[in-house]
Design brief:
Layout: E1 2-9, H1 11-32, H2 44-59, E2 62-68, E3 71-76, E4 81-86, E5 90-97, E6 105-110, E7 113-118, E8 123-129, E9 134-138, H3 142-168
Parallel strand pairs: 7-9
Antiparallel strand pairs: 1-2, 2-3, 3-4, 5-8, 6-7, 8-9
Length: 169
């Protein structure tokens, strides 16, 4: 059962994707309209690279965060990139602001060492795992996400404690 689900839309990435798509469409139309010759027309390799670029840009236009009983999951776009964080491995959660130079997308930042997953804006939730790894999940509702993660962790521990009591009785 899903207890939290929110999708953040990166409007700038959508605009960039549409502009690049329009540019590539214009290039394809221009190449096809040339008089036939050895060098005219479309090239399969160029078309494939263009399609790959648009596909990649489109995949980072949204970030969906989902929390269920056992884990927190993030998914960019239509799922080409996803990550799962087990709730029992999360040590702490807090709302933070990212610096502008942290950028958008999936990044590793070396000082302080952390992974950043972001599609838009500067608000994020910082998750510190029990093994010391730090992750920042971009969101346009940081207080709601932090509260949902804390609540999911608390309910998971309550269920585990209840199961332990039943086992000891």
């Amino acid at each position: 059962m899903t207890t939290y689900k929110h999708t953040q839309i990166g409007y700038l990435m959508l605009v960039v994707t549409l502009v690049v798509l329009a540019l590539f469409t214009w290039a394809q139309i221009t190449a096809r309209s040339e008089p036939p010759s050895y060098y005219s027309g479309t090239n399969f390799a160029v078309t494939a690279v263009m399609a790959l670029i648009v596909f990649t840009l489109a995949s980072f236009a949204t970030l969906t965060v989902t929390i269920n009983e056992t884990c927190l999951r993030i998914k960019f776009g239509y799922g080409i990139f996803a990550k799962m964080f087990p709730l029992d491995q999360i040590a702490s959660v807090q709302s933070v602001k990212n610096h502008w130079y942290y950028g958008w997308g999936v990044r590793i930042w070396f000082w302080p060492k952390m992974w950043i997953y972001n599609v838009s804006g500067f608000d994020a939730v910082e998750i510190i795992m029990r093994n010391g790894k730090v992750y920042r999940l971009g969101t346009d509702t940081p207080s709601e996400l932090a509260a949902a993660v804390k609540q999911a962790i608390a309910s998971q521990f309550a269920m585990r404690d209840q199961a332990d009591r039943r086992g000891n009785d």
